[in-house]
Design brief:
11 strands, elongated, six-stranded mixed β-sheet, five-stranded mixed β-sheet, alpha+beta, single chain, 2 domains, Immunoglobulin-like, 172 residues
Length: 172
């Protein structure tokens, strides 16, 4: 069987490109110790009692003498708790880690205008950390279809100065 020289060239080039992609992935995982992002923990979605999601909100934590904040959010059909009826309020220029779960169906949690975006799966806890550099307001939207009222599932994050946050917004 005769293969034209140009076809042979493109076949060889395809194998080289595939080998390069495989080598890149192996290099990243072996040499650079990259990890696949997954759920940080699992829980029973029907029983959130006894977990921080039983009383969702913003909490102040001290790690190695540095004050950071943790935000626990439930995504339910068709609201963010907190976020929809009351905005999530966090201080500007502080490290904030979001922990998000769903007790009912698959949801999305996207902070509009940023690159903060995760999927919330019942029984799993999604986690991401960010710093909002200055006071502002951000919208939260569900970007995974979750039912007939999905299009109205929205919320808000208010980023306020640290002094205002300390006086008014910390959950005890």
């Amino acid at each position: 069987m005769h293969i034209h020289k140009f076809e042979r060239f493109w076949i060889k080039l395809s194998f080289v490109v595939i080998a390069f992609f495989i080598a890149t992935v192996v290099y990243g995982f072996v040499v650079m110790d990259l990890k696949v992002i997954g759920a940080s923990e699992t829980l029973d979605p029907q029983n959130l009692g006894g977990t921080p999601f039983d009383n969702p909100g913003v909490r102040e934590v001290t790690k190695n003498g540095v004050t950071e904040y943790e935000v626990y959010v439930q995504t339910i059909q068709f609201a963010f708790i907190p976020g929809t009826s009351e905005p999530i309020t966090v201080p500007a220029n502080a490290k904030v880690t979001f922990y998000i779960t769903s007790p009912d169906v698959l949801h999305g949690f996207e902070v509009a205008g940023t690159n903060l975006n995760t999927m919330t799966i019942p029984g799993q806890v999604a986690r991401f950390t960010t710093i909002f550099p200055e006071p502002a307001s951000y919208g939260i939207v569900c970007n995974e279809y979750c039912g007939p009222a999905h299009h109205v599932m929205e919320g808000k994050i208010n980023v306020v100065p640290q002094s205002e946050f300390d006086e008014n917004y910390l959950v005890q």
